[in-house]
Amino acid sequence: MDVKWDKFYAQFVTYGGYKNVLEGLLNTVEIAVFGLLIGIVIGTLIAITKVVPQYKLGAKILSRTSDVYVSFFRGTPMVVQLLIGYFILIPALNLRIDNVSVAIIIFGLNSGAYVSEIMRSGIQSVDVGQLEAARALGLGYGTSMLKVVIPQAIKNILPTLGNEFIVLIKETSVTSFIAVVDLTKAFRSIADANYEYIIPYLILAAVYLVLVIIITIGIRLMERRLAKSDRRN
Q1: Secondary structure letter of residue 179 according to DSSP
Q2: How many Cβ atoms from other residues are within 10 Å of residue 103's Cβ?
């Protein structure tokens, strides 16, 4: 075991493996954070199309289009979506963006499909009287949703959004398929350099675990703060 530690230390410190790890950590967090933010925006818009009254043709078309979108991103693996986006869509649209940006976009689109269902359940958990009261005060439907219903819905679904963030953090391990240096790829490079896999992969698992614990603690602190705010009100 001492020999294995020596090999890992040499590759990690002497040969600069820590630089790849830091880059991988930054990319992992960046992809997950911005992917979730994009997912929240897309998911909220889709959720609104699902709960808005389906009286008009435009609303029905948006709802059906949303169904197709959600079905595709929930029904295909993330790695397949990355490959389609990187090797097909980006070249077809003649876009010149870096690999990390491609991963952020695909992760955001994927997250939007899941967040839409999360947000829809959150909106439906808000008392309908809140929307009616806002409309009675003269606010439009869209304004009432964005300023009254959505903020309350986010409070209700905060733990679930935290779980979605954790899922995105862990799923960044597949971004190496489009040559993104994430945590998994960085530690795999260290392991492949000297064919010693035990220590690098155990440390990799520990790093992911620490990230998840930090996110979990952060979500719980946010929940407590929001709960205190509700009690004061």
Answers
A1: T
A2: 29
